[in-house]
Amino acid sequence: MRAPIIILVFANLAFAAWALLVDRPVNSPAARDISHLTRLVLASEPAPGTPANAGRTGPPGQAGGTAATNPHCVTVGPFGDLAIAAAAASLLQSRGFTPTQRDEPGQDLVAYWVYLDNVPSETEANRLLQKLRASGLTDARVMPVTTAQEARRVSVGLFYEKAGAERRARQVKSLGLTPMLTEQHQSQATYWVDINLTSPGQSVSTEGLLPSAAAGAHLEIRDCPVPGGAPAASSGPVAQSSASVPGKPPAAGNSGNHLPAVAPQK
After folding, report:
1. How far from the centroid of its chain's Cα atoms is residue 71's Cα?
2. How many angstroms separate the CA atoms of 205 and 79, rounded?
3. CB neighbourhood size of 176 (10 A)
4. CA-CA distances (angstroms) from residue 106 to 31, 109, 187?
5. pLDDT tens digits, residue range 169-204?
6. Sequence-separated (6 or more) residues with CB below 8 Å from residue 99
7. Tell me: the pLDDT tens digits for 5-62?
8. H/E stretch holding 18
9. What single DSSP character describes residue 170?
10. Distance CA 183, CA 248 (A)
11. How far is the CA of 217 from the CAs of 12, 191, 209, 235, 252, in angstroms?
C-alpha cells in the first residue's frame, strides 16, 4: 500500500518540475511594418484618387450604370402650312417621339398678275366681268374695294410663269381691253418638326406625314440647326394647304404647287 502512494507523490513532483522548468511559453515574434507596401485593389473597387460617384450616370443616390447617350436632334420638313406640320407632329408623337415645332423664313413666292385697273364703277366692273367670262376667262373676278380712294380692279388671272401671264394679257387685249401685268412677291414661312433620338439605332420615318393632296411635296430629315446659326434652305416644294394671297386674287383651283390656291396656268 505504501508503494503506490510513493509513486503518486513522485509523479506529482515530476510533473510540477516539468511544468516549471521545461514547458515555458515561447515569445511571439515582433510584428513587421508593411505600411510601405503597395495596397492591393479589388477589380470592383474604384482606383485610388477616383471620386466616389465616378462611373455613376444617374441622379445622386442611384447605383452606378452605363454611360448615358446624348440625344441626337433631327428635324423633319419643310412643311409650308402650320396645320400640316401640327398634324405631322401629332403623328410622330403617337409613334413615341416628343416633337417640337418651329418655323423658318422661306423663299419668296413669285407670281404674275393680270388685271384691269382703274375701273370707274361697280357697274362697269360687273359688265367687264361678264364680258371676260363670256369669252372663256372664267377665273376673272372683281376685287373688293376697302376704301373710297382705292382703285377698283378686275382680276383676270394669277400665274406662276410669266409666259402664261403674257398669253392671258394678249387674250384680254384682243377683247379691246387694256390689261395690266405686274410681278407679285410673297414671303412665306416654312415649318419644321424637331425630334430627339435617344438611342443609336432609332430612326424616323416620313410615311404618312403629308396629306395625299401634297403629293408633289418632298420631306427631308436632317440635323437640327445650331442655335444662332443660319437656317437650312429648302431644296424642293413644301407641303401647303389652301390659303389666299393677301391682296391678290385667288384662282379657281389649287394645284398643290408652291403658291397656295393659285392654279399654275401656262
Report:
1. 12
2. 15
3. 7
4. 84, 9, 7
5. 999 999 999 999 999 887 778 899 999 998 888 888
6. 88, 89, 92, 93, 193, 194, 195
7. 888 777 777 777 767 766 555 565 555 666 666 666 666 666 666 555 554 544 444 4
8. helix 2-21
9. H
10. 11
11. 117, 13, 11, 11, 21
Q: How far apart are CA 214 and CA 216, in angstroms?
A: 5
**Beta strand extents in 30-97 (DSSP E only):** 72-79
Inter-residue contact 179 to 156 (CB < 8 Å): yes
Query: Do 226 and 98 form a contact (C-beta atoms < 8 A)?
Result: no
CA-wise closest residue to 196 among 17, 112, 73 = 73
Closest CA to 209 of 103, 106, 81: 81
Strand order in the sheet with 180-186: 141-142, 154-159, 109-116, 180-186
Distance (Å, whole) CA 116 – CA 238: 32
